[in-house]
Write a structure and sequence with these properties.
The complex is a heterodimer. In chain A, 72% of the residues lie in helices and 2% in strands. By secondary structure, chain A is mainly alpha-helical. The chains are: A mainly alpha, B mainly alpha. At the A-B interface, helix 5 and helix 6 of A face helix 16 and helix 17 of B.
Amino acid sequence: MSGTWLPLVVLSISLIAAPLIFATAERRVVLRTTINLCAAVLKLGLVGYLAWQVAFEGARYAWRWPMAAGFDLVLQVDPLALLFLSLSAGLWLLTTIYAIGYLEDGPHRSRFFGFFSLCVAATTGIALAGNLFTFLVFYELLTLATYPLVVHRQTPEALRGGRIYLAYTVTGGVLLLVGTVWLGSAAGSLDFVTAGNPALASVDHITLIAIFALLVAGLGVKAALFPAHGWLPQAMVAPAPVSALLHAVAVVKAGAFGIIRVVDEVFGIALTVKLGLALPLAGLAAFTIIYGSLQALRQDDLKRRLAYSTVSQVSYIVLGAALFSPLALIGALMHLVHQGLMKITLFMCAGNIAEAVHLHKVSELDGIGRRLPWTMAAFTIASLAMIGVPPLAGFVSKWYLAAGGIDDQSAWVVLILLASSGLNALYLLPILHRAWFKVPTAATMVAASGRLEIKWTLLAPPLMTAALVIGVGLFANAPFSPLSWARLIATVEIPQFPDGLIR
Amino acid sequence: MSDTVSALLAGVDWAAVAILTPLAGGAAAFVLPDRARAIGVAASVTTAAAAVALVWLIATAGPYDLAVGGWSAPLGIRIAADGLSAVLIGMTNLVGASVAVHAALTGRQTKPVAEAGVAAWGFWPLWLLLLAGLNALYLSADVFNLYVTLEIVGLSAVGLAALSGKAEAFKAAIRYLLVGIIASLVYLLGVTLLFAQYGVLDLAGLRAVLVPAPATQFAMVAMLAALAMKSALFPLHGWLPPAHGNATSPVSALLSALVVKASLYIAVRLWLDLYQPAGLGDDAIATVLGVLGACAVLWGGLQALIAKRLKLVVAYSTVAQIGYLFMCFPLWADGREALAAFVYLAVAHAFAKSALFLACEQVQRTLGDDQVSSLSKPELPGAVKVTFALAAVSLVGLPPSGGFIGKWLLLESTLSHGLTVWTVIVLCGTLLSAAAMARVLARFFAPEGQAAAHPQVVGDAASWRFSLTPLLLAVAAVGIGLLGAWPVELVGIVGTAQ
């Protein structure tokens, strides 16, 4: 069967691009850019082909390699894998374009783009992992590949941020390792199975609860669940494209995606509820949502404010996964994509502001909308979507999450979502108000050097993601939209899917 | 295809080749010092080829067993190898040949720096003697031969440790010698006690007659204590960091990667094939070894975290890694599952550690010293950084390296009855070694602008000659993890002679 190799090929594209880029001399800009973009485009094309095959032909691809640990390395393409894969492949292309512009003439670009590719390769592996063992392998690779990006600027603050990042993520990785080994030794299988792995039925409940706690603790570090969120605001010292990668494409998403896999395809939501684990997880997510928003209110540094906003927003995904309702799961899966689109837009815009006028604080942004109208337009769209203004992306996911909460007889979820939306508005709208309605200061009106407000490589990516933020909300019912795709997944993950709820 | 290869290989006694080639090569290198390098490399590579053939035969045709000269035990000497020996022979010869190639590649450059140079006249004969001793040790099937070969290994190792010519190295080597002699005497005492009681020395024979008498138990404790001392098990590890940290880099690599494994192997061999089947290996002794191993993991990890010199970081990491290997002992109570963990940890450590020590040489050449704080200087070649990163991945136990597989299997054994204190120790050890390695690797990203006022690069220290072998060894350390499941099957091949 020829398709067996396809998952490996998808992974290899960025995995092979990395050493090629490392080997490229610093000044060979064109060569490096060519490798980068070719790899990104090639990968996106292949992912598109796979999505087509999976959606219309019902195809599934799996590639395995036996390992001495007793479990196979499995890369497989299923709808859930494709959801994350297409997000990372699509945003990789845009972030690469953005990073090429952002780091122009900067030092160590071969190193940067090499690790950047490695990061995306790790994310691809995480998406394609067919069992928890494979997931773990790439989860750890992601930790390692991200560190050089976080400390890319090599300043003492960058090193400090990197140290904190490593301390958190390596500890989380070790907890995940123990949980995985324990599960493997107790249940004998680590496979991801839709609606839960049946091998877990033979394990006693105390052990399962302990394993679940270890796994979620390990994954929660990257997903920035309270109290393991501390690294995320510290990692803000990284350059803007890296922040975009951390917050939207790779790191926090890997954690959230892992929690979805564990809850729905290892334990199964039914078993999670039966073990009494769903409510604590939902509660923790709900607390993180409110806590992150409250912290975001207090930050004057724009990137820190956005970072705490990520802490809050990623927990929406966890919350949706922890509720026993297909609607909530649809909301969670959709938010995985939607949050990525919205947050990457915000971070690229913040990067543009820093690049164009060298301002980093919210309180300094008076009238920035005049100087950077397009950038701020994108920022505005993403902010409104984040708050949940219809018909933008955030609204659709919040709608489904709230419906899921009611479906699960947990009406408190609606209150949490309402409170969070209010807080979102409180920390995002003042930025918009300053940008558009305050009188510009000298600092914000530094003249642009070119015809555009900023280089096109820095402007086009956020505009495109902003357009997507509108598109996925407006055309939520179109085929291949995150919503339709999430429905496709949720129908198989939660067996007792009531037909009436789909439409 | 494998049948054809096996048929072709079966005609030669590869075990004899693996022992005699380095012996002959060592003698030749001693009498022809001008040709020593060529002879040394040729002998090392030939031996490695013979070892690979031997491992292939064991993997495909089962354990190796030979009564030398047709005299069977108890009168004659038997040489034998099962899966465990085969893996360790493979490891020893591949790492050994790589180090030999590295020493030859870099040997020419050493002359300008007298104190850092490998004294060629001493290195090659001693190394080949060491290699012969190691191969013979893994092929021995009786407790006295194990003693003799261990003695050869120990003495040639002391000679190698003293070669660098530095005063500290000489002091450390003398200490190493004293420890080695004391340990050998204690081990010999155990062997004598066994011989006095049973009149046999070969493992298979002893296994048949051994009874849990007090004198036998005393012999066992003496032998295990001696081997623990030779393997630098906490708290008997004090001799290791100075000896490994002050030797020349190829020698440090050999000592750390291969020599400590020899005595450990004997301890494992005696434990699994002699004491445990005879009902002597009770839980208390295994637990003591495991607890000391756990202390070594924590103490070595902590020392590696605070050591200022790079080579000491690497040496203390060896102390910690040996701790993991001793932690396997209590886990063998249920069966031999932990043997695969032991083998993976030992082999991955051999590759990663030799890569690190060899890379230290280039660090020292390009930067002038091996302080951890100097590593941020921009003169450091990129290949060294890659080598360090890959070796660290394996030592910490991150996927997909050989160290990861070892750690996975070890954790699996500790978790077979639920969460235990051993699991927690492995976790803490992992975090400590991750912190120690991160501290080193983070220097590569330290703020720039500290270029040395006087570039201290000696000769062509930045050349590929210094970085090629360490890089390949580090890649191998990571690649071992991806080899699939056959190494575990190979380890599972059990012979009757040993």
